Amino acid sequence: MHSQAGTSPVTAAPSNPAEWGPNLVCCICVTIHRHGRQQPTMTSQTNSLLPLGQGPKVVVYHQTHHGPNGGPPVSLLPLITQNTGVTHVIVAAIHLNEGPGNITLNDDHPEHEKFATLYGEMAWLQASGVKVLAMLGGAAKGSYERLDGDDLERFEAYYLHLRDMLRKHRFDGLDLDIEEPTSLPGTIRLIDRLRADFGPSFLITLAPVATALLPNQPHLSGPIEYRLLEQMRGHEIAWYNTQFYCGWGDPSTTSWYDAIIGLGWRADKVVMGLVTNPANGAGHVPWPNMENVLRTLRARYPNFGGVMGWEYFNALPGGAERPWEWAANMGRVLRTPLPVAAPQQQIPIRPYGMSAPTQQLPPAPHPFPAESVKTLQDLGFSQQQAVAALNSTGGNVEYAAGLLFQD
């Protein structure tokens, strides 16, 4: 951290978090300088949050690293200085572009000086016990296509640069956000290689849309059958950051989550993904409603996996000025001890493949005109198929119809 000219800093925390003693019980607080600059300092503090590693997870994605028009870095430090209860941060998004070695973090090379603050703050979070993962892929396609296929030399040529970047910046794990057609064998090869290179403590997560965990439903990962992947490599996968938004699920009630768990998925491995602001995608649920849903899920499933939010920089209710308030709300509901109570009756588990739960689900909110969806439904397709096709074609009805008939 650097002091602004003319400020009078008081005693700060060790500049290197690794210097903290193993028996030091503390947290970071914020010291305000004369001119308003904030720097982390250390102080003892007790709280009622569950220890990290216990209870549901509170996960935030961090893709927008700077303010508009090359503005200042969006600081992650309030996630720990404000005692939010955050457990994991996922830094997005790594892309493997055409040509081995052409790797970017969003639009720039990972070693660009603009990321210096990000990497520095990652170390503070990790020293506080928060795990920091990177995310590979997302809406920008190509990374997984370049890691897929039978050409092992090609896989190595692209993978090694990803491995080296993760090692250099000491990420605790990698989130695989596969939003392009990818084979099951190619996905397993990537998971196995990550485990071999990084060891047993490295976190490997995936980020499927909610429909991908239901039978016979369209999703974004092409031919991957996630149930089969879980059967084959579930022991290597920490959890699934499941997207319940943008037409792929609905978090405004417990129905979609209940349907997934009712099919036999473990609740501790299904993290409910939310959009943190309507500007970040369709399906945002206001906090009072969301709080009720989360309290119900936590009471219903003692091993509830928790929540993830896309994304951090403008999360409500605080918005761009106080984005950590989203995590604090989640932490207050999910990361505090529960009074001992009789568990609620859980949803009966149906044999995987039965369609009854899906048929009973409420329609998922989506950003497309009702007329566009109806046009495709009139052609004989379900609403979920119509929304999936519109998602894949940027809302173009003609292209969506062609895609559906092609399938």
Question: Would you write up a description of this structure?
Answer:
The structure is a single chain. With 407 residues, the protein is of the alpha/beta class. The protein has three domains: 1-47, no CATH class; 54-334, TIM Barrel (Alpha-Beta Barrel), CATH 3.20.20.80; 368-406, Helicase, Ruva Protein, domain 3 (Orthogonal Bundle), CATH 1.10.8.10. 31% of the residues lie in helices and 15% in strands. The chain has helices spanning 78-81, 116-127, 143-147, 152-168, 184-198, 226-233, 255-262, 287-300, 324-334, 356-360, 370-377, 383-392, 397-406, and strands at residues 27-32, 38-43, 57-62, 88-96, 103-105, 131-137, 173-177, 203-206, 239-243, 270-275, 306-310. The strands form two sheets. An eight-stranded parallel beta barrel has the order 3-4-6-7-8-9-10-11, surrounded by four helices. Strands 1-2 form a two-stranded antiparallel sheet. Strand 8, helix 6 and strand 9 (239-243) form a beta-alpha-beta unit. Helix 8 runs parallel beside helix 9 (324-334), helix 11 (370-377) crosses helix 12 and helix 12 (383-392) crosses helix 13. It is globular, with a radius of gyration of 22 Å. The N and C termini lie far apart (54 Å). Residues 1-15, 18-39 and 41-46 have low confidence and may be disordered.
